[in-house]
Amino acid sequence: MAAPMLFTIFLGVFVRIVLFNSSLASWLADRVEVSTPLTSWKSVIEGITLLQNGISPYAGDVFHETPLVLYFFHHVLSVGPWLVPTVFVLLDLITACLLHAGAGHCLTYLLLTQSKENRIYSKDADKLLIKRSDILDLPRLVASIYLLNPYTIVTCVGQSTIVVTHLAVAAVFLFTTRGHRFAATLALAAATYQSLYPAMTVVPCAMHLVILKAQTGSSVVSYLSSSSIKSYISTTVMFIFWLGCLHGLSFLMLDSWDFLFSTYGCILTVPNLTPNMGLFWYFFTEMFEHFRHFFLWVYQINVFIYTAPLAIKLRKHPLFMMYIQCIIIAIFKSYPAFGDTSVYLALLPVWSHAFYYLRNSLVVGVMFVLSSILAPILWQLWIYSGSANANFFFAFTLVYNTAQIFLATDVLYAFLKREFALVNGMKPTDKDGNTQQAVLQ
Amino acid sequence: MAAPMRRFLCSAAVVFMWFALPCFTLQQDQNVESFFKSGHTNNWAVLVCTSRFWFNYRHVANTLSIYRSVKRLGIPDSQIILMLADDMACNARNPRPATVFNNANQHINVYGDDVEVDYRGYEVTVENFIRVLTGRLPPGTPRSKRLMTDDRSNILVYMTGHGGDGFLKFQDAEEISNVELAHAFQQMWQKKRYHEVLYIIDTCQAVSMYQLFYSPNILAVGSSQVGEDSLSHHVDPAIGVYIIDRYTYYALEFLEKITPTSKKTMADFFQVCPQHVCRSTPGVRTDLFRRDVAKVPITDFFGSVRNVELSLTTVPLSNETESTEGGAQVQKQGEEEGRKEQPKRYGFVDQFPAMAETREKETSVSKVKFSSQFLVASSAFLALVAIIIFGRIAS
């Protein structure tokens, strides 16, 4: 790799190591914006201690980590506690590498598709085209953003186990772009096993694998041809097989299915209403018991329901659909934290060809910065000084989530506008030569 | 010889009857008496006023009047738990500072200078009340705040304040429900914290508070039925508020005439405030009480008449101060005699039983044993994953 890339890697690792050795590490591990009840390091330690004392880690309500991650960290800790920061930094590095490779392959694929469809593009859309140099520049940018993003650094130093999920999601992205069905479904099963929501990325994964398979044949992709259906079914079957393997291994490890209630049960039924950067806790704190089930269903369906319209609209661009799904998961999952933005913020440059049409970039950027600075301050005021209350903190959680929603809608809009402008030109004119305006309806 | 024999037998039978029958009846009487004899040895009282603020003067006056009666009849302060908001005597609106009266003629200052309020002000909460009853108080609680009763204690529980159907309002901030109260009394029964309880409640819809009791030996009386209000008796124009409630006023009238040697029974007490006087209909609950209320003296609950038990059998006490040498000597004697009980040694149970087991483990590295199935399966899975991932990356 080139020197600038090595420099960024070195800088990222250096910043993490410096922060690990400062007092910031333990402070960050306790912050609610960084660690959630599902991913906090303290509960991992609790689970390992319970395991060492012969008690099932899932007996109480403290531990919500999956058994195989418990197994992994148990072995890491039995080597020595000094190994843990190294493992976290390594996980971040591997994720950055996977994102680098994934971005590279995605851009290659986009460039190939662009070159195939060049003849239907209009003449004045040159500004919107992907350049060949992007294949080298942008993946470096992706990896740098992932390594140097303050959100990612804070999550790594806070030892939140969401880094494992990020690794799995980055692997899904990489293997989907490369078309390796076994590996992609394996990574997808790992991500679903770890936190339930990436399960909905099976749809764009299957769609992209169909496209790749069809590309080797004819250039027209039909999602309903028999070979496509065979491809879907094999993807789904393989995904279920890998998921079954992982769950079976977890069952064999502790000889009980208790872990399902502690992991999936906790994700779905949201029993723990510790404040975090999400939308669930505030609403369910003030919810009457009578309505709790109804609103749980509403909130959980809300996460998954965007798959259908996105699949219909973005049926030719499943990789972009996977990206939007990452953003949706980060916004609407039951226990989000600052770290959930890492993967999609890192992958944002891959679609930089659509940035011409971004409208809200300043607003989104300012909202992110504002909420990141003010949320901890208002937390301090609420919990420690007692001069604010939950509404203040929740307001900035809302600002943070609104920033993410604006980002998702803006990127989606820009992408679709670009698709339209590529075919119809950047300044479409009607028969009389007047400029037409394209409006998204 | 038959006739003299018969005569002798008849006279013997008569003499026998003459002496035996009274003995039998005496025995029966004794059985009857012992059946109705009260089994308590000490008396306690828990007097709770659940209101605060000046306009609830009458509730404090109620409670303090009962307090005075109970003290006069012999229950000492150490066995009375008095829970008041205690904001009347020194209230800025009290035209007679440092006093609380229960009558417009202001004969008796029920506050006095020897009142001992155990829970005052904001300490009168539902939680504290239930903790007092059930005995689950924090370790540092002083004796004056504890209800240290046993299974031979008769307890008088008097509550007054603002109530409703099934609840009683505590200090305008929270409520105690009749369900909680019933469960508290059941906890007391299971922990053998009372022999009998007399529960008096003077609030609106008072009867609802004792309707759900299910523990034995509770006698309950309420000042009004469900759907009725308990009314106050009269206003003292000099003080400016109602100063006593009807039921307690008439109850006190009754209690003023009681002395520690009085023969009045609980049945008389229950007649104390009929509807034409009290305007509300008092209710009584006797189904949980095992004795006949007409035979229960009123001093069983309001006074502190101690019952003394005489026993004619001797109770051997063990010599608990054996020294080790003496013990050895005794042991030798015991061996000679054939049987001597080893002095039992008692110790505390380990505080953390799991720690006792893991102390052995700590010497070696704490190892977790996973089943061999899992190890085989996981290694196979890892091998498969490695092949796939690295195969793909290489290709």
From TrEMBL, chain A:
PANTHER family: GPI TRANSAMIDASE COMPONENT PIG-U, PHOSPHATIDYLINOSITOL GLYCAN ANCHOR BIOSYNTHESIS CLASS U PROTEIN. Residues 1-25 form the signal peptide. GO terms for cellular component: GPI-anchor transamidase complex. Pathway: Glycolipid biosynthesis; glycosylphosphatidylinositol-anchor biosynthesis. GO terms for biological process: attachment of GPI anchor to protein; GPI anchor biosynthetic process. This is Phosphatidylinositol glycan anchor biosynthesis class U protein. Belongs to the PIGU family. The chain crosses the membrane at residues 87-112, 157-175, 182-211, 231-252, 259-282, 294-312, 365-384, 390-416. Pfam families: PIG-U. It is a multi-pass membrane protein.
Automatic annotation (TrEMBL), chain B:
It holds the Pfam family Peptidase_C13. It comes from the Eukaryota. Residues 333-343 have a biased composition (Basic and acidic residues). Pathway: Glycolipid biosynthesis; glycosylphosphatidylinositol-anchor biosynthesis. GO terms for molecular function: GPI-anchor transamidase activity. Keywords: GPI-anchor biosynthesis, Membrane, Signal, Transmembrane, Transmembrane helix. This is GPI-anchor transamidase. The lineage of its organism: Eukaryota, Metazoa, Echinodermata, Eleutherozoa, Asterozoa.
